[in-house]
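Why does residue order matter? Because the sequence determines the fold. Keep that principle in mind as you read this record.
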Amino acid sequence: ERTHGGAVPAVPGGRVERTLAARRAENVDAKSAIGRAALRLLPAAGGTILLDAGSTTATLAESLPAGHDLTVFTNSVPIADGLHRAGTVDLHVLGGTVRGLTGACVGPSVLRALGAIRVDVTFVGANGLHPDRGLTTQDPDEAAVKSAMCGAGRRVALLTDSSKFGHDFLVQFAPLDGIDFLVTDSPPPGPLATALDTHGIEVVLP
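Structure:
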């Protein structure tokens, strides 16, 4: 798969990090349903949210209603571009070094900005959701930003489709008890369902 500045092996379902474009083309219906379901967790008018970079969080951004009087912070260049064009929210971009694979801003400036804010709800994505390891991803820089995003939210919602269940990648950025909601397209299976229930995490389905 061609990326900005090079290429990565195309290994569907493997441990190699996928490009944003490739992930946007996978499980499209499930991700769209998750984005719409996540609207139930939006704060009241005048509230604040954090939107993590990613293909599933992007579907929430695309579903945000006009006239909701919402302030949105994001580290995603593609999400920020879409929200800017729509002109429906008060938009704040957390700038830093942009990763070509994902369009996510990472680095010290993003972490400093996240350390200074507290939002009503953080909406975060993950590459893996494991009953023991919690929320994981492949890149350490993105993991650091995701972890800081979780810490900046009064409530934290993980948006991920069921293909991520049981997977465990290089870097853990939050334990299961670091989130309040799981918004997904299918009920979690056995051990994961038990772990989510143990930690009091509410599962939100379309």
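The two ends are 32 Å apart (CA to CA).
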